[in-house]
Amino acid sequence: PPLKGAMSRSDLWTGLLQFLIIYFLASSVQRQCKDKLEFVGPKVKNRVIGIVLMGGLGLLCGLTNRVRGGWRPLGLIDGDTVARLLHSLVVSIAMYVYHGNGKGLGLWVAAFGFLGLLYGWGCYFGMADGPAVLPEDSHSDCINEDDRFGMFDLILGIPQLDWSWYRRWARDYAGMSLRGVVWTAPMGVGMRGWGDNDNAFSQMIGALMGLAYQCGHYWVDWTEPDFSKGSPAAEFIWGAVMSVAFMAYVYVQGGGKGG
C-alpha cells in the first residue's frame, strides 16, 4: 500500500516546484499588501497573562496538529483535508490574539499554513528507527522501497540497508528540518509585512521540526496510543512548538505590550 506522505520518483521535482510556486505567491502578495499591514503591537496587554495564554494556545495547537496527523477524538473530524483546515485555523486564531493587526495575519497564516501541509514527508518520520519491512499504513525511512521517496531525497540521498544508524538519523533529522522550513517559510513571509522587514527568523522557525520529532522519539512510554512515543508524540510537540514560536515572535516584535 502507498505510504502516507511518501512520493513516487516522478513526484520529487513536483513537490519542490510546488513549494517554490507557493513561496513566490506568498512573496508577491506580501509586496502588494505590505503598506496595509503595519505592525501595531499585540492585543494582549499584560505580560503574565500573555505568557500563560501563549502556553494554553500552544497546547491547543499541539492537539490540533495531532488531529491533522490522524487523531480523531470522538469521531468529530472526518478526512485529512478537514483536519488540516482545523489546525490551520486554530494557529491563525492564535496569531490573531497575539497581533494588533491580527485579522490580516490570521487570514495569512490560515491560508499559507494550509498550503504548507500539502507536501509529503513520510520517509523521514522514523528518525532512523523506521522498519525496513513495512506494515500497512506505516511510516518509515523508506529503506528498501524501490518506488517511495522523501521530498528531499534528491539532496539528502536515498537510504540503503547498509547505511549506519547515524547516517540514517542524520538524513531523517535534516529531512524533517527542511520539511519544517517548507511549512513555515510561506507563513513567515507574511511577518515581513507586520514589522519584520529584514529578519528571516520567522521563515526559519520550521527548522525546529527535526528537533521536535527527535523529542517525540524520546517521549515517555505510556499506554495512550494516540500520544505514544514516536510520530504521535512528535506531532503534538511540533504543533505546540511551531505555534508558540510564532506567537512569541510577534509578541517580542511588539515589545510584549500593546502598540
Provide a quick synopsis of the model.
The chain is mostly helical. The chain contains 9 helices and no strands. The chain has helices at about 10-35, 45-70, 80-95, 100-115, 155, 165-190, 200-205, 210-215, 230-255.
What are the defining features of this structure?
single chain, 259 residues, mainly alpha, 9 helices, disordered N terminus
Written overview of the protein:
The chain is mainly alpha-helical and 259 residues long. Helix content is 56%, strand content 0%. The protein is built from nine helices and no strands. Helix 2 runs antiparallel to helix 3 (80-97).
Oligomeric status = single chain
Query: What fraction strand?
Result: under 5%
Could you give the distance between the termini?
A: 53 Å
What is the overall shape? Answer: globular
How would you classify the helix and strand content by structural class? mainly alpha
What percentage of residues falls in helices of 4 or more residues?
A: 55-70%
Mean pLDDT across every amino acid position: 75
Residue runs with pLDDT of under 50 for 5 or more positions: 1-6
How many E strands? 0
Q: Quick one: biggest sheet?
A: none
Series of H and E elements: HHHHHHHHH
Helical segment count: 9
What Rg is obtained from the alpha carbons, in whole angstroms? Answer: 18 Å
